[in-house]
Amino acid sequence: MIDHLGEKRGVVKTDQALDIAAQAGLDLVEVSPNTQPPVCKIMDYGKYKYQQQKKKAEAKKKQKVVEIKEIKMRPNIDDHDYQVKVKAMKRFFEEGDKVKVTLRFRGREMAHQDRGADLMRRVQDDFEEIAKVEQFPKMEGRQIMMVMAPR
Q: Angle 113-126/79-94 helices, nearest 10 degrees?
């Protein structure tokens, strides 16, 4: 048993430990029940629960929820339009978000899938330093998708 001052009292019978806790006006809490003999501590259990709740809330406040932002492109994208998309992707990576790059083919563009693959490689090369590819480009129906995450 450990008393409310943090000193070890050694092995104490349960009745005696409960009496000591009652005299101190605190609770007897079983800290590690699986040891032989089990370890108990005299403390204010309500205060302990409150502190645990505060720690959990603080940890939750510090964590960042990672969102997946989507950038849609076409295989015949112009240079300026591509630069606008790149600028947006850089902002997303700086905010710590993942980016899903979607390249959609329409009509006869399906005959030129190599252009789409080249564009995806260009995106990979442009973001090699600040992002890693989490899901490599793959064809799904009429579109190629790739997921990138910040380094």
A: 40
Q: What are the CA-CA distances from residue 102 to residues 33, 71, 140, 142 (Å)? A: 54, 6, 10, 10
The 3-state secondary structure of 72-133 reads EECCCCCHHHHHHHHHHHHHHHHCCCEEEEEEECCHHHHHHHHHHHHHHHHHHHHCCCCEEE
Give burial (CB, 10 Å; 0-12/13-18/19+) of 131.
buried
Amino acid at 49: K
What mean pLDDT is predicted for residues 22-40? 89
Compute how many other C-beta atoms are within 10 angstroms of the C-beta atom of residue 148: 24
CA–CA gap between residue 135 and residue 26 (Å, rounded): 55
Please count the CA atoms within 13 angstroms of the CA of 104 that sit on its side-chain side: 6
As a whole number of angstroms, the distance between CA 108 and CA 28 comes to 76
Residue appearing with tokens 């204010």: 44
> For the whole prediction, is pTM greater than 0.85?
no
